[in-house]
Amino acid sequence: MSRQAPSNNTVDPSLARMTEDAVKQKAVGSHEKRELVGDDEYKHATASITNKNALLENPLQGISLERLESMGRAFAREKGLGEYEDEFAKGAQVAQDPLAFESLTILNDEDRNVLRREVTHKWDHPWQLYFLTICCSMAAAVQGMDESVTNGANLFWPQQFGIDTAVRDNDQWILGFINGAPYLCCGLLSCWLTSPLNNWLGRRGTIFWTAAISAATCIWMACVNSKWHLFAARFILGFGIGPKSATVPVYAAETAPPIIRGALVMQWQVWTAFGIMVGTATSLMFFKVGDPSSANITGLNWRLMLGSAALPAFFVMAQVFFCPESPRWLIGRGRYVEAYNSLCRLRHTKLQAARDLFMINALLEEEASLVTGKAAIVELFSVPRNRRAAVASGTVMFMQQFCGINVIAYYSATIFREAGFDDITALGATLGFGALNFVMAGPAVWTIDTFGRRNLLLSTFPLMSIFLLMAGMAFFIPEGPGRTAVVALGVYLHCMAYSPGEGPVPFTYSAEAFPLYVRDVGMSYATAVTWIFNFVVAFTFPRLLSAFTPQGAFGWYAAWNAMGTVLVFFLVPETKGLTLEELDSVFSIPTARHTAYNVAGIGYNFRKYILRQRLPPREPLYAWEGAKA
């Protein structure tokens, strides 16, 4: 999302005055709530930051319905949409509180029925919204295939290019360096290009060109003639992975109706898992392809594996420009008529499109008013509230890699071969891992909003630690069916614990933890963290497997999962179901205060629920908790 103010957008002076007055009243009304929490830093930080973000939550609060109607009509005339003046008059009133439409006298029965159905039938939307969702899902599948096709190829290309990890320790580093090349590029370069690429090309253009890079480099990898040639191709692949991983979830969020936004954004994780499964199936498909005697081709099977990931990328390229562009991006460039037409394709009625366009524009005006002239990356780490969000997001992104899941995604065929499987059976077992990853990611669409981000992580990290330790210790069993069964069971159980927890949480958490005005750079930072540590995992594991043995390698990542439980407990507050104002309250409280409160809660919960003692309710940590009690 761009932080650039619309070039031809002037904030309505009356809107600015009225929203400012409303926020002042809100700040006075919440004085007692802030006193409940105490802490000088919270008082000072929240007084300024929360008030700013309260406007971002709803910049139309406190404005009379009559004023909203006149603002909607003026907006339509000013932006070249005068023929829809009545729709914008209605839409402006509805935008202030989308669930209070029943009491609006400006609406007729047909309008109310449309808005009522939006709530009662939340999955009833135009087919073009679902066409866009399919496009985003295909882009996620490209991502998954880019990550997983190397799994089967690793069984063949190292020998062809003279890499012998069993004999030379240095070759283990080379293997990891080549496999991790795309993620090195993502962490150091390509993730940081997300914002400028989106500014220049738009969401669709960025997705198109990153898919084109993915397709071209997959074909390039299929044609390489040396290990360093393969490294170069895989490094450039990173330019197709990094910006796409940050853009697609944002594109889905900006086009989806609010009531199903979380579910559509979550499709990124579900269909990345699907791509991982398809990549493994492709490796199995080409496993026994021999080199043709009539052509001078060596290693046709692994070349087809690496090249196969180009196919879904071509589908994305062919599809994406038939989807509507992000209305938010179009408004940011003053293209209001196009933005309205885009929303009309994504909503059932012109009233719904007018409501959403008016609200997006109001949010962008407030967002532009928060620009201080400082670089966004400076504000990300200099403002305590933002810095704590960055620490929490960085923690879950780091642990997404060091929980060990991508060790299995990239090297599971090698791991299963170490456990006693032959090559083809190892790939078959890997397909089972990919299928479980996909199937178990589906329920995360509901569990992430039911159990909460923090609770999911605190309950699944210990399980992942136990199951990885189980898989590692199974290598002490003498070689045979018993060992292979226990190793496979441990890997599968680890995957089942990962998919509803550390799988979907990091991207969802990062997308909501940052305030709107630094969200672009916050997401760039978060995705850079996950990809740079993805590189570290891919780079180090071949050597780790040799030096630590499988038992030590699995034990290493089991220990990190145990550490992940501790890190989440101390550094990651809950964000489920909170408004922007409530999130500001959460991240404006110092980490030490969070820690002390949560540590005290261990003893409190033990006494209350285990010893069954009658205890008074704990004093709430957040002001808004006291208000809701």
From TrEMBL:
GO BP, one example? polyol transmembrane transport
Biased-composition ranges, Basic and acidic residues, are: 18-39
Q: How does it sit in the membrane?
A: Multi-pass membrane protein
Does the keyword Ribonucleoprotein feature in the UniProt annotation?
no
Which Pfam families does this UniProt record tie to the protein? Answer: Sugar_tr
Q: Where is this region: Disordered?
A: 1-39
Question: Domain Major facilitator superfamily (MFS) profile, which positions?
Answer: 132-576
Q: Where are the transmembrane segments?
A: 173-195, 207-224, 270-290, 302-323, 389-412, 424-448, 455-477, 522-541, 553-572
Compositional bias annotation for Polar residues: 1-12
Reaction(s) the record says it catalyses: myo-inositol(out) + H(+)(out) = myo-inositol(in) + H(+)(in)
What GO CC terms are in its UniProt record? membrane
Coiled-coil regions listed in the entry: none
Q: Which Gene3D superfamilies match?
A: MFS general substrate transporter like domains (1.20.1250.20)
The UniProt record lists the keyword Transmembrane helix: yes
Q: What is its main location?
A: membrane
Where in or outside the cell it occurs: the entry states: Membrane
Q: One GO molecular function term?
A: transmembrane transporter activity
Homology family: Belongs to the major facilitator superfamily. Sugar transporter (TC 2.A.1.1) family.
User: NCBIfam families attached here?
Assistant: SP
Concerning PANTHER family, the annotation shows:
PROTON MYO-INOSITOL COTRANSPORTER, SUGAR TRANSPORTER, PUTATIVE (AFU_ORTHOLOGUE AFUA_7G05830)-RELATED
Q: What is this protein called?
A: Hexose transport-related protein
Q: Which organism does this sequence originate in?
A: Rhodotorula diobovata
